[in-house]
Amino acid sequence: xxxxxxxxxxxxxxxxxxxxxxxxxxxxxxxxxxxxxxxxxxxxxxxxxxxxxxxxxxxxxxxxxxxxxxxxxxxxxxxxxxxxxxxxxxxxxxxxxxxxxxxxxxxxxxxxxxxxxxxxxxxxxxxxxxxxxxxxxxxxxxxxxxxxxxxxxxxxxxxxxxxxxxxxxxxxxxxxxxxxxxxxxxxxxxxxxxxxxxxxxxxxxxxxxxxxxxxxxxxxxxxxxxxxxxxxxxxxxxxxxxxxxxxxxxxxxxxxxxxxxxxxxxxxxxxxxxxxxxxxxxxxxxxxxxxxxxxxxxxxxxxxxxxxxxxxxxxxxxxxxxxxxxxxxxxxxxxxxxxxxxxxxxxxxxxx
Amino acid sequence: xxxxxxxxxxxxxxxxxxxxxxxxxxxxxxxxxxxxxxxxxxxxxxxxxxxxxxxxxxxxxxxxxxxxxxxxxxxxxxxxxxxxxxxxxxxxxxxxxxxxxxxxxxxxxxxxxxxxxxxxxxxxxxxxxxxxxxxxxxxxxxxxxxxxxxxxxxxxxxxxxxxxxxxxxxxxxxxxxxxxxxxxxxxxxxxxxxxxxxxxxxxxxxxxxxxxxxxxxxxxxxxxxxxxxxxxxxxxxxxxxxxxxxxxxxxxxxxxxxxxx
Lengths: 352, 261
Known about the structure:
heterodimer, A: mainly alpha, B: alpha/beta, six-stranded mixed beta sheet, 9 helices, 33% helix
């Protein structure tokens, strides 16, 4: 297992290697999802569940009560699926933003893109401005994300590496602006909706309904597939934009395509789950340590490991203070913020 | 058939012309050194030849087509550039970097195939970089990194190789190593080489032809013996020099005419 994962990065990235690692990480995701399914206040019998849902497990004993079936089908399973989708979305978006800004500290949350999405989504929740999930909220969240991305990338400038200072200051300011806007909306809004909106802002996967699952999975799968077409170009892009042009990459078109796809994925994920930070930072970084920086293997690995990580984080959020629940964003921030500071310190030390 | 035609070329970023009234052609298999003082437009000329910049006046034709109108992919199959610096952020290994040279020959979604690996193997042998294959580029010395970047350019299988000060930060041994390597590619494989450089004497030894630029215009163009005269160098660089003959090759060697004692 160790030798399998830790192949030195000078080994070529082949389709076989990508498929092997993806299958392995997908299995890991399924195992973690399985554990999560049977973790919680209500004790669900494992054997009876298997018997209920898988025909091949009919030799097992036990039956599920109606309440238990309902807990699985309408509470835990949708929530696990949403966690997987959102984790994968944020992680893939993190990989793309890091490549575009040529800075491994970039992440949708740190850059303020999640906060931008949140402004739109909160307006949707509190005022029902454009109606419900059907059209309004993902649309609003997308517009918010787009506004934030325009600000961030407008400041980053064209054709430049985004230095740590610029990245962090931009993120802090964009976040401050949008958070102020959110507080403003809260202050003038109906108190009954306040708790829901607050939960949402800290990251709340309990909103998982069929539509949330549908939207996030469509954006995630279409977006990641689209992005994957540019995976080799992304490798070249991170070695410098002029170099990329000299190696035949249509830099302008590629960057716009990647930015648009990552924005869509982020917006759909944030609209469904609220602002969950640092997933897009931690996961790509860990994967680069394991398999090297080639985006053709980095993207699928980030996809699966991101999903796994968020299922795990949400399981902790549900069980640490049971029967109460922590917002999942609290867990990811508690892991992610120290990790971020560690990376920042190392990167500052390397550059001095 | 000429590989490139430069036709009354003029370019400016803002107001003053950086390059103006340039006329020359590049035939296949030449080894050309572009010389000139700082600010004479050498690097700008390279970027125009590569089609990264659009001329305001005149044209740069690659096989008869204005090079800036070609798709980057098309250009990258025929022209490779060796940059002065490498500024990647993630720790790609030398071999991964060289593999990127195959990119213009690959489609979206696709992976390198046997043929691509064979090319990479060959150019890494040629540049003596196989020992470095597994090492991250930012851990290599200046000379090693330069060889890897040349390997990447050769992996593109170009007709024309452009280099921006390929030996700027190297000691004499590594300078000779790099230039001999380029000369071998030029001689054995018919690769056309255009190198911008500050090193008049190395250019004299290795190039078949020198283009001497002076504040954006062509001062002289021809054989090293004809271009690298004391008069030309003094006129362009504004410092008194004398030339002597290289004992083995007969090529001119330029030295400052100092009077310290």
